[in-house]
Amino acid sequence: MDPQADRIDVTATLAGDAEAYRRIMQRHQPNIGRRMRRFARDSNSVEEIVQDVFVEVYFSLSGYSAKAPFEHWLNTIATRVGYAFLRKRQKEKNVSGNPVALENALAAEPANPGEAAEILHRVLDRLSPRDRLVITLLHLENRTAAETAEFVGWSQTMVKVQAFRARAKLRKLLENES
Fold this sequence. Notes:
By secondary structure, the protein is mainly alpha-helical. 77% of the residues lie in helices and 0% in strands.
């Protein structure tokens, strides 16, 4: 990414240039789309979350201080929007999927990596949004505890404690289902 182009386009957007914001979106949308796939699997949900990210960015743009790279600031907002999506979905769900189908899927050996990924995502869906967020950032995106803490606004200690608890819950889910 081009930090200079981001600075120029942020300034222009704040001055009312809609074309500048379109350039920001075009430049960052592929990365944000990949990041949001960690929070949702179906393309409609991913598109919705990406749109929510850029709406949130637009309304928060005046708060961008340019002390850190724009991309970092954008990723922090994206992580928080993804986390909000998980919380919202958890509230809407109330019942966690079809346990029989999950049990059958875990009992069989996955024939390919795609099946293994699908099983993983179904098990992750059964975790709370906080647990899924910390597992996603630390283990699927290979973020450090410090990076994760900065993205979600927690202390590093909180990230480590949450990760420990989330891994224990994940392990228990896998043991109960197999």
